[in-house]
Amino acid sequence: MAPVFQPIVRLDSRDVIGFEALARWPESPGVNPVEAFDVARALGEVARLDWWCRRRAFETAVVDEMDRSQYLFMNVEPDTLASPPPWHDDRLLADVEESGIQIVLELTERTLLSDPSSVLRTVEQSRRSGYGIALDDIGAQVDGLALLDVIAPDVVKLDRGLTHMDESTIETALAITIAGEYARRHDVAIIAEGVETSAHERCADQLGATLGQGFRYGRPGPLSDVAPLVGPRPRLVDTTRGRVDPLRAISDRVPTAVGTLADVLSMCDAVENAALEETTPGCVVAALQGARHISAEIAARYRDLARRQLLVGLTGPGLGRAPQPGVLGPLTPDTAPDDTFAVAVIAAGHAVAVIATAIDGPGSDDYRWCITTDRTVVAEIARSIIVGLAPR
């Protein structure tokens, strides 16, 4: 495998701010990278292939003396993020940190939902190492829209289908709206992929993109062929974004009211029942603690939710790793009881959550609680629950 590099530019000036590393096989030019990864996954070797592609991209960037003011975008399969590199006694990871090259990991939508807990934990670790996070192919599927705020990427990359306006559907309009709202709310950059013509460039601008990538600005090639084009880069990466906090810490900082346990339980039931009627699939997760525990009614509700939603999960003491068909359970079923419970529902077009903490500890009838539709807070609550879920 030999990487090639495609420039990413400012749409207003065409200054090159970075490059995406793309896997190619020069001796087998007919190999499609997506198909190669599908075959590797079927053989159980996708993590190994993913690591080697990243290694070759980084080594090439160092050998070709990539300018340290550039961003290096690397594709990563989400379900391999937590896998260790397939080599030992190697300085590669240390060399990456010492090189000064700002790396942005691009997560594809294809496998975000297979092990969302591992994805979130590894994204958090990657950010602690100074890496940026991009979510790729937004608009191609609903998965990325549902988890956009939960993953909280530094960069949103619009699928080429949006740039080309291949379809004008409700789903397309929703993808454009959600991506734009997220970018404005968190001050993140949007990259339009597949810009090949002046019409595509105008469309990218109308979609809210500030950066572009495509044949109009350069075809993938050796880094040395395109490196001299680089100009000043924008600040894209915020390593504090998408932090995972305990539910109690979130409960302590959001505005709350005081109410009875019956009131809180009734609101949780209402939020979950409303999710059963939503037409846009997304994520429904709950932390069952203390007074809110698994019951036949809740079990049946979540079994129904799993038939309608992309990601459904429950955590809490005594729950198995698959408490109901299609429902993810906790990584550690023996989790100690807590005095905070919550439910979060987040999808492309809606977000709502309830979080409650017992005032006098477990067994109390009085709770500090809130119901919120603030998408950022809902995503924080969902993130805190998802990180404790078992894989599919």
How are the SSEs placed, and which strands pair?
Blueprint: E1 2-10, E2 16-24, H1 33-42, H2 46-63, E3 71-76, H3 92-99, E4 102-107, H4 116-128, E5 132-138, H5 142-151, E6 155-158, H6 160-163, H7 170-186, E7 189-192, H8 198-206, E8 211-213, H9 223-226, H10 247-253, E9 257-260, H11 261-275, E10 282-287, H12 296-308, E11 311-315, E12 340-347, E13 351-358, E14 366-372, H13 375-386
Parallel strand pairs: 2-3, 3-4, 4-5, 5-6, 6-7, 7-8, 10-11
Antiparallel strand pairs: 1-2, 1-8, 9-14, 10-12, 12-13, 13-14
Helix pairs in contact: 1-2, 5-7, 11-12
Task: Give the structure's gist in a few sentences.
By secondary structure, the chain is α/β, with parallel strands linked by helices.
What does this structure look like?
Helix content is 36%, strand content 22%. By secondary structure, the chain is of the alpha/beta class. It has two domains: 2-229, EAL domain (TIM Barrel); 247-386, 2-Layer Sandwich (Endonuclease, Chain A), CATH 3.30.870.10. The strands form two sheets. Strands 1-2-3-4-5-6-7-8 form an eight-stranded mixed β-barrel, surrounded by four helices. It has a six-stranded mixed sheet with strand order 9-14-13-12-10-11, sandwiched between helices. Strand 7 (189-192), helix 8 and strand 8 (211-213) form a beta-alpha-beta unit. Helix 1 crosses helix 2. The longest helix is centred in the first third of the chain and has 18 residues, at 46-63. The model has no long low-confidence stretch (mean pLDDT 89).
